[in-house]
Every structure is written in structure tokens, then in C-alpha cells.
Predict the structure.
Amino acid sequence: MTQTLYVGNLPAEADQEALHLVFGQHGTLTNVTMKGSYAFVAFEEAVDAEKALNSLNGADMLGSVLVVQPSHQQRATGMRKTALGKVEVSCIPPHISWSELQGTLSTAGNILHSELTEGGEKLGRTYCFVFETVQQAELAVLQFHEAEFQDIKLKVKFVEEMRPSTPPSLHSMSPIQQNGRIAAGVGAGAHRSRSVHTEFPLRILVPSDMVGAIIGREGNTIRMLTQKTKARVDVHRKENPGALEKAVTILGTEDSCSSACYEILKIMQDELIATTGYYENGLDRIHPLPSVPLKVLAHDDLVGRLIGKGGYSLKKVATETNTRVNISKQSELTPWNMERTVTIAGMIENCSRAEREISRRLRQFYEDDMAKLVHQAMPVLSAKGNAPVRGGSHSPTSMVAIKQLSLCFCSFMLDFV
């Protein structure tokens, strides 16, 4: 049965294509009718309309806070109001990522929203997940409470039954979730807040046999690492079973990411020393110290500028840091993996210096690209009357740019968790 939503407080730049892009993420649309500053969006299925209502009411679209409600006709006939179920998962150590946890819990049902509610390092993190129905939430508790997950036992409990009338605001979400909302085409106006863009991830590859040393007994090593550097470190050890290398995602400020990367290099070097017998009777057996190549992952869209004309830029970094830097071939890319590997070899102190410079440049390229896309997405306003100089209120130009921006966020952020 078709369900229609009222969408109010639309920005002047919004048009039918924009609404199709934003609301179409949640289900099949049968009709979109524009009425100036508001519109009516009809969904083929009631459940999809509910998802859009819970996800988009109060969301930021091109600087305007959307008002999404059932249409008057739908309210009169009674739009389905299935209660939502909320569960809490507690005592999660830092080395377990939000995405891994959500992926596991989603086998019990459709998760509409999730958030980090507590982030204490001693007792672990606490996450809340809102399921589409109470039954799904109860099933999640039944399936996963006291279940083995990686190296811990999950603690899952049912929290409350919720009515789907008050959706979470963007401000209540983690940075990753905020970027996910923007990637879905919502909140493009949030570029005014730099906080959304500052956590550019540092991604590295580590040998699979080093993962245990990085995490440490009961997660102690990675916990100390995060406390020392103030960075979030996620080791994707469950991905690509049997692979020789595992990806590590580091989130935080520019300095905290590089500091965490250096600490990981030291951990791996110490592990090599311990396993190869570097010392004998307190004396050096091997000189120099065992080499620990640093492998940084970079999106292919940024690598060309990193290399520079004739390879000059990359050679300059290698010369100034006394390292050797190589980049994997473009021919090795696949449609589902657009990251290339930047391998840095040398003393770990020099590798760390090279990584800082390479990461600084990648971050700058990324921010430059985002700024250009945002500029394309937002019409330039004239000095008088806020009239659009280009694009117009029904021009698809701005929404094409928003779609490009969405794809960039998907590539750079959502695939990193």
C-alpha cells in the first residue's frame, strides 16, 4: 500500500531530482510532488516510508532542517506505527570496531540507528542499536547475549520499546554515522561544520601474524596505544580470512593518527626482535634493527597528485626522509577495492616522518576535492535578495555535484569502518 510523507522546510535549491536522490535511498518511490517550500513523497511500501521518516526528519539538507511527517491523509487513515526495539551492548574493547559489531547484530533484523553512548576505556564502550521491531531486538538479545564474539563474550540486553516518532539527530551520531548520513545525500549543508571532515582516516596494512601483538593479551596493548595517542584504532582481523595482511584503520587528528601509526611500527619491530633473537647475553646479534616496511593505503583518485609530474613529489618525500617509497600499480585495482598501497621502507623513525608528509598531502588533496564539490553543489548567491546566480531553484546541477560528493564520502569513509 502506498504511503505518502509530507516534507517541509525544503531549501530553495531542492528539486524533484534532489528528493528522489535523498528519499530513494530508503525504498521505491511512486511519486514526488513539489509545492514550493514543501513536497509530498509517496513510497510504494509503508515500511520504507517509516524508514525515511525516522531517518530524515530533523536531518540537514543544504543548510535546511527537514520536517518529515505522515501526510494529513495518511494520519487520518493511520500510518503503521510499529514499535521499535532498542538493545544495549556493553563492555566492548576498543579494538572491536562499530561496523563489525553492527554487521553481526544485523543478522537478527534491520537496524535503523546505532550510536556510541559510553566510551570509557576501563569498562569498554557501550553501543545502542535500534531495531525495526521489538521482536527483532528480542531476537538479538536471545542470539547474542553471552555469545562468543572475537575474543570476548557479548553482553546484550533489551533496553526499551520505542515509538518511531522521534528520530535521532545528526548530533547524537558518531562521526562515522554522520558521514554515512551525508553519503546518503543528506546533510550536504553540513560542510559548514569542519568537524565532519577533520577525521580523515589513516589506513595501513600489517602482516596477519602481527595482529596478535598489536592487540595484545585481552586487548591491553591496543588499549594502551589508544590511550597514549588519543586515536581510534580498528584492526580488521576478521576480513579476508587467510590473507597475509590485514587492514588497520586509524581515526583521529592528523597528529594522533601518525603517532598511533608510529606506535604500531614499534610494536611490530619489538615483535620481530623477540621472535628473531636480536639480543644474546645482552649484546646485539643483528645490526641494523630488523626492517619493518610501512604500507599506507591511498585511494586511487588521490595517488596521481601524490606522485607528482614525473614522480617528482614522491621522490622529494623519499629524499627528505631518507626512505624508499613505492606505489602499487593501478592495474592491480578492482571495482571493489580502489586503494593503492604506498610502501615506505627505512628506519621506523624515518618511515614515520614519510608517513606524516604523505598523509598530510593526501588529507589536503581530499579536502580540496570536497571543497570543490561543495562549491559546485551550493549555488552562488547574489548580494541582493538571495537569488541564485546559477543553477536556479529547479536546476539539477547542484544535485549532480551532491551525488559526486556522496560517492566520495562512500569511498573515503564508509568503506574504512
User: Anything to note?
Assistant: DSSP finds 14 helices and 20 strands in the chain. The radius of gyration is 24 Å. Residues 75-80, 165-198, 379-417 have pLDDT under 50 and may be disordered. The first strand starts at residue 3 and ends at 8.
